[in-house]
Specification:
elongated, about 110 residues, about 85% helix, about 0% strand, mainly alpha
């Protein structure tokens, strides 16, 4: 069996473990965002399926279909929630990157 490891990949894993040990709050926040992201993707898929179903089942003018309008309103709300989550995720990624760079800089000085 031949094993080949990329130096940068191993370094990233090691730095990730150090950060998780030193800043468990960041690790927990990252894990929560991953779970939330997966949940929201599932919810968006459900809403999308409902919209497509309502559109295909609508007879006459879609504007008169109250259920379709309600599903569209739900999708608008969910899109807003996802936008907030994405903003939080970007901020967390920036904090993690800064923390990793700090750990990396400190480890090079040792």
């Amino acid at each position: 069996m031949l094993l080949c490891f990329a130096h940068s990949g191993l370094e990233d894993q090691l730095l990730g473990r150090v950060v998780a040990e030193e800043r468990p709050d960041l690790e927990e926040a990252k894990n929560q965002l991953i779970v939330t992201n997966a949940k929201m993707k599932g919810e968006l898929k459900e809403i999308e399926d409902q919209i497509l179903y309502r559109l295909s089942a609508t007879e006459g003018n879609p504007v008169d279909n109250v259920e379709l309008i309600e599903v569209l309103e739900q999708s608008k709300v969910k899109a807003g929630e996802i936008k907030v989550t994405i903003c939080c995720k970007f901020m967390l990624v920036e904090v993690l990157s800064l923390t990793l760079r700090t750990v990396q800089t400190l480890s090079l000085k040792v």
